[in-house]
């Protein structure tokens, strides 16, 4: 999923708190950029508004802080991922069960993949 610089800056402005520099959003890991791109694509597809996103993300962060998240920035995109999962399930795009099934399959595939190699899902990962 590619993201134009203009789209990235647009989303970074629309959603407060996105770590950014003068060129736009800043990511520590590739998966963070992918979560950002997925959120932007789902928003552009009309699945949720930025207001819904911000409210759901804010609730997710508050919940995590209440459970002991130190809110030092390292977990910011984990909150994005949880927010995506919440909204996708709430909007009927996918069920929570399906999301968990894919997360478990991904974990299984990652466990068998050598470090540095691309992770590929196989049918047996859904066992």
TrEMBL record:
NCBIfam families: nitrile_acc. Signal peptide: none annotated. Pfam families: NHase_beta_N (PF21006). Gene3D superfamilies: Nitrile hydratase, beta subunit (1.10.472.20). This is Nitrile hydratase. InterPro entries: CN_hydtase_beta-like_N, CN_hydtase_beta_C, Elect_transpt_acc-like_dom_sf, Nitrile_Hydratase_acc_put. It comes from Bradyrhizobium valentinum. The lineage of its organism: Bacteria, Pseudomonadati, Pseudomonadota, Alphaproteobacteria, Hyphomicrobiales. Residues 21-104 form the Nitrile hydratase beta subunit-like N-terminal domain.
């Amino acid at each position: 999923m590619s993201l134009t610089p203009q789209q990235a800056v647009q989303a970074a402005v629309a959603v407060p708190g996105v770590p950014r520099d003068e060129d736009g959003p800043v990511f520590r890991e590739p998966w963070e950029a992918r979560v950002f791109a997925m959120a932007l694509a789902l928003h552009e597809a009309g699945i949720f508004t930025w207001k819904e996103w911000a409210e759901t993300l804010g609730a997710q962060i508050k919940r995590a802080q209440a459970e002991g998240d130190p809110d030092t920035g390292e977990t910011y995109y984990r909150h994005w991922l949880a927010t995506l999962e919440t909204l996708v399930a709430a909007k009927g795009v996918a069920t929570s069960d399906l999301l968990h099934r894919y997360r478990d399959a991904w974990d299984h595939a990652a466990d068998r993949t050598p470090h540095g190699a691309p992770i590929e899902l196989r049918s047996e990962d859904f066992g």
